[in-house]
From TrEMBL, chain A:
Keyword Transport listed: no
GO cellular component: EMC complex
UniProt keyword Cell cycle, yes or no: no
Topology in the lipid bilayer: Multi-pass membrane protein
Organism: Diacronema lutheri (Unicellular marine alga)
Entry keywords, A to Z: Membrane, Transmembrane, Transmembrane helix
Biological processes annotated in GO: protein folding in endoplasmic reticulum
Signal peptide stretch: none
Protein's name according to its UniProt entry: ER membrane protein complex subunit 3
Similarity remark: Belongs to the EMC3 family.
TrEMBL record, chain B:
Main location: endoplasmic reticulum
Ranges for domain EMC2 TPR-like: 102-208
Highest taxon, organism lineage: Eukaryota
Subunit description: Component of the ER membrane protein complex (EMC).
Known function: Part of the endoplasmic reticulum membrane protein complex (EMC) that enables the energy-independent insertion into endoplasmic reticulum membranes of newly synthesized membrane proteins.
Origin species: Diacronema lutheri (Unicellular marine alga)
Designated name of the protein: ER membrane protein complex subunit 2
One matching Pfam family: TPR_EMC2
Location within or outside the cell: Endoplasmic reticulum membrane
UniProtKB/TrEMBL annotation, chain C:
One Pfam entry name: EMC6
Example of a GO cellular component annotation carried by this entry: EMC complex
Domain of life: Eukaryota
UniProt family annotation: Belongs to the EMC6 family.
Keyword line: Endoplasmic reticulum, Membrane, Transmembrane, Transmembrane helix
The protein's name in its UniProt record: ER membrane protein complex subunit 6
Protein topology in the membrane: Multi-pass membrane protein
GO BP term, pick one: autophagosome assembly
Source organism of this protein record: Diacronema lutheri (Unicellular marine alga)
Transmembrane annotation, as ranges: 31-50, 56-76, 97-114
Length: 273, 301, 115
């Protein structure tokens, strides 16, 4: 196959291959470093848990109110939205806002550690590549790109007539970076999967059901608006008892079933009314 | 990369003998996920893992295995084995809440309830929202026979974690034992809110309403009917309940014009229930049971 | 390789009930197959010296082939038993596959032809 340019094998040995190898190793290093740096989760904040659970319970109540008798529903609604004693009417002490959170040393530390572990290696590598490996063509990409990409992919090479498919090391860096993501998940994800088989079932044994997705321990959430929203939602719900006609439904089902008066072959899982 | 072992889906696949480390881990996870309390099986699979010092296992798997074997040893009253496991865990994770909880559970298993309680309370001071410890406290109080305190502790737990269906179920049971039917009904209402398509909850709620008597019997009948709507096959309990409600309502109410409709409904439901029950028993029950049933139905009808 | 969601402790009739760890496992399996085949296909494309559009067609071909093989391996079981959305076998993980494909395509291509 004819190609316009033939590149020096030395480039291959000293830039092309080492770049891939280094990036791969750095990625693994980064992964291990993150898991080492990760600190233990703090014990949960009782008040936060209580509030998010109250919200969840109210939502559940609204969703399934039809299945409990009217008095039961009203009692619970009263519990939640009574103007003075209701759960959603209580004065919430303002949770620490973002500014105060910044000064909390633990939270800051965690945030910084997380950011550091991901950003620093990438930025550093990019800088290194730019510094040491610029100014020459490294790679021919096998697919064509529009000429407008030339300025981006051929930084530092002032040759106007050079085919777009010949690119510098920086673009090779990006190709490797994106392509490696899949590879990393393959190689490193495998080790995580075995642990999760046992630990997840251990964890499930301890969790009481699902914690609401938003507020995980460590992030205080301001629930004032949520509470007001729920109060409003509750007042909008009209309780229509789904069981009011239950006996009629049952008898009607009997009549439809057949001459022998027996329910033959009724499906094991019927949708509830 | 993870080896491709097919997931376990039934107890038969688990088997009863140790095959290899990977199968053992999967089996223990299967038992845990399906909440099967089989300490004998856990020991069969877990003991080789613990003895071999976790060869061929990742660290996390090895420690999880130690924890499971520890719990099985407590169940089977094997104190030396339990001690061995907990020492490994305590050595690796000193001061962790999970390890402290496990150590307190040893007290509980040995019947030293007061020590267990103080240990749990100490952990709760450091970690106030720890679900496992809160639940263990309830279990200890129940073992001590102190149902009032157990109910109180469970209410405190539910104030925090109101979507825990198991906890509501447990509280309901405690109230039923104490004959506090109104409170038990409340618990079952919560369960209905959590799982409205579960016919068992409808039946049990109806049982409680029927026990309360009076106007609640009407509501109970509706819940029995609904339970049968959701699950028409093999729902003998709801059929019996339906019959009892109809019986109660037929013998209680004086005939009013509005009630004629209701009386017809009651008769129809009674006939429906008895026919269903007879068919169910005809197919499956022994002759003596069927005779008992027919005698009972004669008496009611 | 694939795991059905399996028996659940709490019965909920009429509602969809998923076992999250099994779903995650199945998703990971598809992902692994996708990336693996993309890598292999990328190497092949590079060695064969494909350029441009034929190269991309080859990638799509390998995706389709992988999905088809997964389906065949699963046999006659219903997709609904194993995945949240039945067409997941065909659509999952295409982007990462593409990225890996490009990487190895470029890598092998240059190794073989340019240097």
């Amino acid at each position: 196959m004819q190609h316009e340019l033939v590149l020096d094998p030395a480039i291959r040995d000293w830039v092309f291959l080492p770049l891939i190898v280094i990036m791969f190793l750095v990625g693994i290093l980064r992964h291990n470093a993150t898991s080492l740096l990760r600190s233990d989760p703090k014990p949960g904040d009782k008040e936060q848990v209580k509030q998010s659970m109250a919200l969840m319970r109210s939502r559940r109540l609204r969703a399934n109110a039809r299945y409990i008798p009217e008095e039961a529903y009203h009692a619970r609604r009263h519990y939640f939205s009574h103007p003075t004693t209701g759960v959603f009417s209580q004065k919430l002490e303002a949770p620490p806002n973002a500014l105060a959170m910044m000064s909390d040393p633990d939270v800051m530390q965690n945030m910084m550690k997380g950011n550091m572990a991901t950003m620093v290696p990438q930025v550093a590598m990019m800088g290194v590549v730019n510094q040491f490996f610029s100014g020459f063509v490294l790679v021919k990409i096998p697919f064509p790109l529009t000429p407008s990409f030339k300025s981006m992919l051929q930084r530092g090479i002032p040759l106007a007539s050079l085919d777009v498919t010949y690119v510098t090391s920086l673009s090779w860096y990006f190709i490797v970076m994106f392509g490696m993501q899949g590879l990393f998940r393959l190689v490193l994800g495998g080790s995580e999967e075995d642990e999760s088989a046992l630990m997840m079932s251990a964890g499930m044994g301890m969790m009481p059901g699902m914690m609401p997705g938003g507020a995980m321990p460590g992030q205080p959430v301001d629930n004032k608006k949520n509470f007001e929203q729920e109060r409003e939602n509750l007042s909008l719900v009209e309780h229509k008892w789904a069981l009011a006609e239950a006996e009629d439904v049952l008898l009607a089902g009997v009549k439809l079933a057949g001459a022998s008066g027996a329910r033959r072959g009724a499906p094991a899982k019927a949708k509830s009314s | 990369m993870a080896t491709a072992i097919s997931g376990l889906t039934s107890l038969e696949q688990v088997g009863t003998t140790y095959v290899n480390a990977r199968h053992a881990i999967r089996s223990i996870a299967f038992l845990k996920a399906n909440r099967l309390r089989r300490p004998d099986l856990v020991l069969t699979f877990g003991l080789p893992l613990v003895d071999a010092k976790g060869a061929g296992l990742s660290q996390a798997e090895s420690y999880s295995a130690h924890e499971e074997v520890y719990l099985a040893a407590l169940d089977l009253d094997d104190a030396p084995l339990a001690k061995r496991c907990i020492e490994v865990l305590a050595g690796r994770f000193p001061g962790s809440f999970r390890v402290r909880t496990l150590q307190a559970m040893a007290q509980e298993a040995g019947g030293r309830f007061n020590e267990a309680l103080s240990a749990y309370n100490a952990i709760l001071e450091d970690d106030p929202a720890n679900t496992l410890v809160m639940k263990r406290r309830v279990a200890v109080l129940e073992s001590m026979g102190n149902t009032t305190a157990a109910a109180q502790a469970l209410v405190e737990y539910l104030a925090l974690y109101s979507s825990d269906g198991d906890a509501w179920l447990q509280l309901g049971k405690i109230y039923l034992v104490d004959s506090q039917y109104r409170k038990a009904a409340f618990c079952y209402e919560e369960l209905l809110l959590l799982a409205p398509t579960n016919h068992v909850f409808h039946t049990k709620y109806a049982d409680i309403l029927y026990t309360l008597g009076g106007p609640d019997v009407k509501t109970a009948r509706k819940y029995y009917a609904h339970s049968l709507n959701i699950c028409p096959q093999n729902n003998a309990r709801a059929l019996y309940g339906l019959m009892m409600c109809c019986q109660a309502m037929a013998s209680a109410g004086p005939a009013r014009s509005k009630d004629k409709d209701d009386a017809r409904k009651t008769a129809a439901l009674l006939e429906f229930a008895s026919t269903q029950l007879e068919q169910m028993y005809a197919g499956k029950a022994s002759v003596s049971d069927s005779t008992v049933l027919s005698r009972m139905l004669e008496g009611l009808a | 390789m694939m795991q059905p969601p399996g028996a659940e402790v709490e019965e909920e009739k009429g509602a969809e009930l998923f076992a999250p760890d099994k779903i995650a496992h199945n998703g990971r399996t598809i992902y692994t197959c996708r990336v693996g085949s993309a890598i292999v296909a990328g190497c092949v494309a590079g060695i064969l010296g494909m350029e441009g559009l034929p190269g991309f067609f080859f990638f799509l071909l390998s995706c389709v082939a992988t999905s088809a093989m997964l389906c065949a391996r699963m046999g006659s079981v219903s997709m609904f038993d194993y995945f949240a959305k039945p067409y997941q076998v065909w659509t999952d993980g295409l982007t990462e596959g593409l990225m890996s494909y490009i990487l190895f395509w470029t890598l092998l291509f240059d190794l073989v032809y340019i240097f």
